Amino acid sequence: MTINQSISSLPAGLPDLALLTEKADRTGSVIIYQPYLDPSQRSQLDAAAVPLDISFNTQAGTREYELFRTLHQHHEAIGLGDDVFWGLLSSKFEVKSVTSFPSFVTEAEKARAEGADAYLYNPLIGHAAIYSNVWEHALLGGHPGMEPIFLHIQELGYPIAPPQDKTAFVFCNYFCGNKKFWSGYFAFCERILESFENEARRGTPAGVAYSGSAHYSRDANATMRPFVVERLLGLYVQQAAATGLKIAAFVPTVADFEWKFGVRLGRMLHGLFTAKEAFLRSRDEALLTSWQEGRQPLIKQPHLIWGADDPPGWMPRGQFIGGRELMRAYAQQASGASPVQQQPVRTERPAIPAAKIEQPLRNLLQPFAGGWQAHKDRHCIWIVTPENYNHSHAFDEVALGLQGAFEELGGSAPIVRDMNAFAGRAPIIYGGNLLPAEIVGHLPQDSVIINLEQVSEESSWINSRYVSILRAMPVLDYSPRNRENLSAKGIDHAGVLEIGYSRCLSQIQHAPVKDIDVLFYGSMNERRHHILKTLNDSGLKVAHLFNIYGAERDAAIARAKIVINIHHYASGVFEIVRISYLLANRVCVLTEGNIRDPDLQPFVDGLAIEPYDDMIERCHKLIADADKRDAIAAKGLELIQSRSQADMLMSVMRAGA
């Protein structure tokens, strides 16, 4: 494969558009490939990845860049959507990184939803702390012999001296982006690489260095070219950001540095990293001086950093449970606290295999054992909130309703997002599916998990880890039907606490003029997109929100004539958790469903209910009939108000007495 030359024949076995679309639907339009050379390597790939056979790409002068070009051309050929994020993570990602593969996907999904064109992840966080940019790393020993390459890039008009912040200091090709990002990246790289190819043919110092040895101790056959390509990403980002390219990047915490380098060196490196970032934001010379002085001992002895930051291939992978969804993510530092004083929660797995969680006796699994008087002020409500995971806000309103129920009954249950805020109370947990299995041994007695996940084989959340937690703890489920499905998985001690109404939930002030015809909020897939696009093409004003919660989402609801609810899967279960909040705020809801569904029966007159194929027609009728919309919304409020969350809570308390 030569520079600036299209790939004459793509390798066999690349995924078709249908497979990629299905994969993107599950991950917020983010597709991440993982490469392999043989079946044994393929078995090590993450289940969420798209496997990529790279046996066609094993030359000493080629690495990820050629794979990127192959995939880009394939995506162009099959018509992959322009806004889909895609990238490639090597099987070594969890050897070098401080987070898991699923965490990378989650952060990329978040970046895309917030309008970024790409998400970049630099696993070499120690390098970012002590080097000004990726070129300085090579100059100071990373890849001896690159000096002629530096000079040639400068001759081409690209300055390589400016320092790089977290969005541009990138090693290892761990990134993903949309078509805008990739097209610009290839155009940028190809111009520079074509020039180096010409220099190599002419035998100039730059060309000889480019095509010669990388002086790489782990691969004596590697040429310098892949390591030049690797460094071009940061240079491209610096150039393109000035013209409007939007980049989101991984930002390591003090816990990440400590996990990788140990407490003493980790804190030192984190201090250097934050000082460098602060200088690049403020250009305060005092910060620059502090960083320069602090890094000098490490620049002189970089082996202290290199080995831990970029471990050899024989090192085991990091043990992650949902990436940052480890215990350190649930014991966050208090606001304003000094990171030096914070003692991190240990994140490594024990050296010996963890014992299986044995199911305790049934009386220990009874939620609220002892009844109301024993529990009226015993609990807090914990919304599990991993760092940088915005989707935890999906639990906000149901948690608020439960807090309101405690208060209406004369008790208390403050809402918290941090284990450090328990203040001696036992948590009632929303988001238990985000927890590591080890959490069970660290929770107070009387802790309770409320399961809001639909229990089905289609759900990736109902996995062995989460099931082991549910088996070991008192559990309440939001749905009698769901509770039966839990029982089929051996969780036969779960009780039921259905979703009800508390006065505090009625908090949306409707706009006097509703300028949105149809509002949908949630992730997008083909069956949802079809209805929304058809409505929009027919002239209705349709709004779609994703990863938007709280006041911003409520403001859109206040402006909407109809909020539409479309199942993600054709076999979907009625989304009472989402819809109850809309009913509590007198919103006209059009939902996909069967009027004979037992879960829908309590709300039949307070919702517009239609099967999928009839939703578009019903939507137009409702838009044309304001009185009908108002009547449905009023009845919906009446019906949800008849389902007191306080009464439901007291019923569960009595069962525990």
Q: Strand tally, please? A: 17
Helix-strand makeup class? alpha/beta
Give the uncertain stretches in residue-range form: 1-8, 320-362
Radius of gyration: 27 Å
Strand fraction: 5-15%
Please describe the biggest sheet, giving its number of strands, its sense, and whether it closes into a barrel. Answer: 6 strands, mixed
Helix content: 40-55%
Largest sheet strand order: 2-1-3-5-4-6
Protein name: Glycosyltransferase family 1 protein
Q: What keyword list fits this structure?
A:
657 residues; alpha/beta; Rossmann fold; six-stranded mixed β-sheet; six-stranded parallel β-sheet; 41% helix; globular; disordered N terminus
Walkthrough of the structure:
The chain is an alpha/beta fold and 657 residues long. The protein has 25 helices and 17 strands. The strands form 3 sheets. A 6-stranded mixed sheet has the order 2-1-3-5-4-6, with helices on both faces. A 6-stranded parallel sheet has the order 8-7-9-10-11-12. It has a 5-stranded parallel sheet with strand order 14-13-15-16-17, sandwiched between helices. Strand 10 (448-451), helix 18 (464-472) and strand 11 form a beta-alpha-beta unit. The chain is globular and about 80 Å long.
Question: What does this entry show, briefly?
Answer:
By secondary structure, this protein is of the alpha/beta class.
Describe the secondary structure blueprint for this structure.
Blueprint: H1 17-26, E1 30-36, H2 39-42, E2 50-53, H3 64-78, E3 85-88, H4 93-96, H5 101-113, E4 118-120, H6 125-130, H7 134-142, H8 147-155, E5 175-177, H9 179-202, H10 205-211, H11 225-241, E6 247-249, H12 254-261, H13 263-282, H14 285-300, H15 303-309, H16 372-375, E7 379-383, H17 396-408, E8 415-416, E9 426-430, E10 448-451, H18 464-472, E11 475-477, H19 480-488, E12 495-496, E13 516-521, H20 526-537, E14 542-545, H21 550-559, E15 560-565, H22 576-584, E16 589-592, E17 608-610, H23 615-623, H24 626-641, H25 645-656
Parallel strand pairs: 1-2, 1-3, 4-6, 7-8, 7-9, 9-10, 10-11, 11-12, 13-14, 13-15, 15-16, 16-17
Antiparallel strand pairs: 3-5, 4-5
Protein name: Glycosyltransferase family 1 protein
